[in-house]
Amino acid sequence: MIRELTHSELRWKFEFESLASDVLKQRRRPRKSSRIGFMSQERALAALELGLGIKQRGFNIFVVGLPGTGRTSTVNQILAERARKEETPDDIILLYNFADRDRPLAVSVPASLGPKVKKTYDLIVERMLSNLEKAFEAERFLSERQEIENVSQAKTESLLGSIEEQAHREGFVLTRAAASLTITPANKKGEALSEEEFDELDQNQKEELEARAEKLESQLEDAVRRVRVVEKDTEDALAELERKTAYRVIEPLFEAARVQWKPHKVIVDHLNALQEDVLSHLRHLIANQATIPDDAGHNDGAEIHPRHMLEEDDFDPDESILLHYKVNVLVTRPKAAGAPVVHETHPTSSNLIGRIEQRLHRGETITDFTRIRAGALYRANGGYLVIEMQDLLRDPSAWEGLKRAVKNRAIELDDPGEPGRMVSVVSLRPEPVPLSLKVILIGTPELYYALSKNDPDFNKLFKVKADFDLEMERSKERIQKYLQFLCAICAEEKLRTPTPAGAGRMLEHAVRLSGNQKKLTARIGEIADLAREANYWASKEKVHHIDANHVRKALKARAEREGFIQSRILEDITEGRIHIETDGAIVGQCNALTVIELGNYEFGVPLRVTCRVSSGRGEIIDVERETQLGGPIHTKGTLIIRGLLMDRFGRDVPLGLTALLCMEQTYSEVDGDSASLAEACTLFSSLANVPISQHFAITGSVDQRGKIQAVGGVNEKIEGFFTVCKRLKSKNNGVIIPASSASDVMLSEEVTEACKNNEFKIFAVETLEDALFLLTGRKWDEGKDALKPAIRETLEHLQRIRFTPRLGPIKMGKLTLSQNEFDTEQSKL
To answer: What are the φ/ψ torsions at residue 37 (nearest 5 degrees)?
Structure first.
């Protein structure tokens, strides 16, 4: 069946001006849910609802769709609305672990209380240091300390005095030097005996002195032991005095804090440990004094500072006791913020899980628990985490870390150091934090199926698939939502309001992008870009509305901007460098149509398909396949043509032919089967020796029974041939398309107008015979000029000449053979 498409069938025309006028008059900033309603992705929305509603393990979501379908914006809007109604998760704080300093404590507190805990600790430290300094400078403490020191000194003097008297009686002098005591023989004046005087003594005197010295030394050692016991008792007494004094001034601070945080046992226990640590390190906090020297190393009256008043970097970090008393607020949120929604746009391992910052100190990198920073998993805990899968896979460790956290339901930050790091690193491992969140990954279908096939953990962790479609039905309700979407874009981005005609022209382009007159594209990003570009042209004309002409200008400017290669190809065709026939009739040559994709821009161009036949063994040789320029689908189409030939003639006539099919002037890979109909027509034209009209171009896929099947890109193909015919100034041209692709036609206004004026024609056909009738003007098997008998006659002729003996000898190299000998040699080859 052959049907010429009328101009009304070639383009859907927007006829909802009154509806558009009503919607556009209500221009206002829309609710955030308006785009969700517009999308009308019922299947995807239902899957999202299911995935978000099931809290059990593994029901995370993978959103499948192409960019521009609104997948990301829709997910973010749904999550934002849902999260506002949910409970705000706890804050996470890190505290110093007094039992294991490399394992900071991870503590959960109700939302918004994390900074309050930090403030409590900071106030304790600030007031504690001030109170301790005052307490240790108070008269009471000084007098009690002096009393202890006086008692100690008296005991020491008593012990040393008795031994000193004993030494004097024995003729010795007791000398005190720092922490040591020595005895030296005395001369007649009672002074220490010099070496010269000692040498003048005779041997008996020396031996007598040595005997008495040994006796005194044993007594002296006993006295020294008792002095050390006194000093130890004094030190213990002073330490106890300091502890009691400190306890007296810090206990009220810690008690107030314990009362404040009584509902949180972990914090109360940590405050107790902190208080004990303070009492154990009083000397580090207060007793030590540090002097600030000048550049020459002298203290010229500079101020003396307590140790805790110095900057942290002035001392080795291991001695920074105050670090133990800090709080690292890892994650905090306002109390009524709802569940968090985190869209991580740069999902590296550190950004996703967290990181431990390092700093250089004395040539070595060091860190502490206050330098731990939360990643997206910490921030999204208790809520939702959204990640683009393509970005996530750029860092394999990030993908593995995410799977590990979701599988174990815990966030565990571990920084073993970077490979190849040459300096030592302080390793910290905070306590694991229980993880409860919903992960939403967004990616293309190719990524989803690749992960589903190759990653054994993927299907266990992401059990919900939400598919975003590329198109939707073109109903009145959807048109109204599309118009509302255009209003939303214009209101949100302060664009000019489109007129009903301008909005209608944008919807016509939305139908064109869908590839079907009965559908609208769901690639709303492209429609939004069209509105922005049309707004630019409206601003150039200084008008207040976007009309249809501005939309046309935007589309034309886009084609000119992205159509550089197309213009070069058209120039080559016009100047004859690429040979395309659009007039006359030629045997075994047909104009096929192909689509070239350059990024987001597509355009159609015609190309010549030629066929030559000769006697042979039933082979159909595809030049593209033989030269490795044909893709697998193209090769499949060529093999189907062989089956078609067998279906039409193989039962009745031996196929003693060789056919050579070629796409002329193609120098890059060709794939697809949309040219198989054109190749079949050229084959049968060559067999029948009947010319094909070059006024037509043809596209379609053919099966082995001769039925014509739908192909893609019909609009670009038709417009491409129309443009070539216009450039070559030929007339009465047209395009033949499959009848099943007729509903996909949504041509430009220029082509539609040409068809309306009978300057260009579009035919839809269902079978190979229909296409051949349009191309050759002959029916398949009716009439005296029917194609089938002519083709049968050619096949019989080719078969006859293949086996017809030749007269005379045949030369083969240096040999001279008979016909039978020659055929024998040929069969061997």
So the answer is: -65, -40
Q: Which amino acid is at 746?
A: M
Assess whether 788 carries a catalytic annotation: no
Outline where DSSP puts E strands in 287-394.
289-291, 304-306, 327-331, 341-344, 354-356, 359-361, 364-366, 372-374, 384-388
Beta strands in 468-512 (DSSP E): 471-473, 497-498
Residue 367: the pLDDT is: 83
> Does the annotation mark 717 as catalytic?
yes
Helix (H) or strand (E) holding 326: none
Question: Which of 714, 735, 713 minimizes the C-alpha distance to 724?
Answer: 735
How far apart are the C-alpha atoms of 384 and 84, rounded to whole Å? Answer: 12
Q: How far apart are CA 797 and CA 56, in angstroms?
A: 75
Residue 253: count other Cβ atoms within 10 Å of its Cβ.
20
Catalytic choice (40, 674, 693, 701): 674
Residue of higher predicted confidence among 452 and 212: 452
Give the CA dihedral 106, 109, 113, 115, nearest 10 degrees: 0
- Which is catalytic among the residues 438, 481, 717, 788? 717
Q: Which long-range contacts does 523-526 make (Cβ < 8 Å, 24+ apart)?
A: 523/66, 523/68, 523/69, 523/470, 524/35, 524/38, 524/39, 524/68, 524/69, 524/70, 524/485, 525/67, 525/68, 525/69, 525/70, 526/68
Residue 181 has what pLDDT?
A: 64
Between 27 and 121, residue with greater pLDDT = 121
Write the pLDDT tens digit of every residue in 315-345.
444 447 888 899 999 999 999 899 999 999 9
CB 526 within 8 A of CB 550: no
- For the question of whether the overall pTM of this predicted structure is more than 0.85, the answer is no
Q: Dig out the tokens for 306 from the structure.
A: 């307590």
- For residues 682 and 383, give the distance between their C-alpha atoms in angstroms, rounded to a whole number: 63
Question: Cα separations (Å) of 806 from 656, 795, 799, 818?
Answer: 17, 20, 14, 9
Q: How far is the C-alpha of 801 from the C-alpha of 503, rounded, in Å?
A: 67
**DSSP-derived pairing of the beta strands 696-698 and 589-598:** parallel
CA 404 distance to own-chain centroid: 17
